[in-house]
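hey so u asked for the seq, here:
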Amino acid sequence: MDENLCLLADKLGIAKSFSAVGTEQGFFKVREDVIKFFCHQYGYDAKTPEDVRLSLQKAEMHSWKKTLENIIIVPSNKLRFSLVLDKQQLNEPIKIQLFPRAIQDESFEKVQEVSFVIEQERESKLVGNKEKVKLWLKLKDKPAYGYYDMVLTCGVEKYLTILAVVPEKCYTTSDVESAKLWGYTLQLYSLKSRRNWGVGDFTDLADFVTMCAKVGADIIGLNPLNVLSHDFPENASPYSSISRLFLNPIYIDVEKVPGFSNVTTAALRKEIEEIKQKELIDYTRVYNLKIEVLKKLFERGRNDKQYYQQFQLFEQSKGYDLEMLATYQAISHQQKDVVEGGWYAWDKNLQNPLSLKVDEFKKQNRESIEFFKFLQFEADRQLQNVYEKVKNLGLKIGLYRDLPVGVCKDSAELWMDRYVFIDKAGAGAPPDAFFPQGQKWGLGAFNPYELKNRAYEPYLKILRANMAYAGALRIDHVMGLMRLFMIPDDKDEGTYIYYNFEDMLNLLALESHLHKCVIVGESIGNLPEGFIEQIRARNIYSISVLWSERWNDGCGNFKLSKDYPENSFVSLGTHDMPPLKMWWFGYDIELKFSLHMMTDKEKSKAYKAREYDRYLLLSALDSSGLWPEDKKRHGDYLYGENYPEGIEEAVHKLLAKSPSKVVMLQLEDVFQVDVEQNLPGTDIDKYPNWRHRLPVDLEDFEQSDAFWRHVDVIKNGRKC
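ran it, structure tokens below
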């Protein structure tokens, strides 16, 4: 590879090679055309050696072109930043003023003039025909955490930027640090209840909060709640939303909307009951039924003065983002029977959200747009009610929300602001032992350079939206704050692109403090060396699961309670892993084989490995004396011919006795579910991902012996 192209890739944060754990090759060199593709996406030509040479010069001069960056992010213990001046400006007096972006109260100063010192460290460079000097300033005053409009005056010149003063670490609480908390992970859609319409909703969630308060659970981990496709409800993956800024209306409890009466749905009762009797969730019928009734309720709501005023206030507070989401949904709904391929296939003028044609559409379809806004208002209102219940009942963390790593390529987020995303490429995963060809998720991901150019506002918006009503936030694939594996749309190979990790972490820390929200990073899998230590140093708790807490790089003995990491949220598995009963019998192996995801030879090898793993798990439970007194194991269960009574309780006791900060119970394991919610690498044509209901109605949880036995196991284990 050309030396200058190597230097340019390094300068731009494009990996030239990467490791692939568990593959025969083990190490991959990235193709030149892939590197050149991403250089071009960042605005640097690389077609010819001369292009590359000029682009390298351009990249090296980038930091010298502006006096101040668009945003300056400084930790409160290191209030230091650089600025670039013409050499002749060095003798001019400098003044710095800060204007807080959010006034907390009347006593908060609306403008602060801060003192500083100019440090001795400086650099100089000839830019064009001018000599530029880079200085380092250190603030002597210590502003409060937050965002400020900063005005730097040098002589007669004024320079504007945003200053973010950030804490050293993310927010946490003494309750979390006590390492005694526990709670549940919950796929909200999977909750069955005798009153819902075939999918779990916000009233179910509120009822579950009440139940948690009763049994002493302080945290409820949720699947992402973000809005999905209105016209294709079967696109049900909560990790592939059309906008991470707003909520999925399918979770609205229609019967809790003002104006609802039983008369409204009398004719629908039979269909609702039919839907609820189906083995799998029928998203299309559930969603369309709800929308049918919600349209009537919206019309009635216009006549309820107080309710409609609340809607208008919500509409104003969400402003442009809500307007554009609703416009996108209204256009999509109109276009669904006309074109295929999403907004990329719309008329070119409709593809531009700022075009005159979109303006004309908005004028002609105002009622449809208002309805989509109403859906967000009502979803937000009902989730806020859940949050109020959490506060009133005193749960120490409450809702633990989940922020997806990316967004659907055919999404409102990309349509309304496509230039902040990397064009013609999507996030995925490199080759590994499970997926030797890698995974092409096709999720839209931020362009790191455009993101910083926008003062990280798009990143901050999704953090704020998903911290709303939450006491904790899970960052899906937290490594994405450092790097993401990106694959061009027209290629099968990709590479890692790097973000400004320090900036991303610093802003995450600030938002966590402003929202009083604990941060948890999904950190299972192939991680760069030292990554876990870096996030733990920032009070970002990692995620640990039974299946990965094993010696010998995850292949040896299962770890005992004392060996679990302290600064983590621990659970038996995740939504992407088989529940314990499924794992025990090897149903997951048979499933993959039936879907042609493994060969006969691989299947035979997997069964043999599973037999040994069962033995190792039993040994770990035996050596710690974790079996329930009334359910001691009675054999070796060779070849999985039987299922050990009490094994879930024994495993949860192992987790409960660990030093890990929070223990999470999966309801699928409590109720011995033997199917997994999501099989990575498949879509609905192969496997019914995200469609499995829990086998027990919510109203019957407290009548379940299994439910109470697990409560006792966890509470007793957490006391140790």
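The first helix runs from residue 3 to 12. The mean pLDDT is 94.
lmk if thats what u needed
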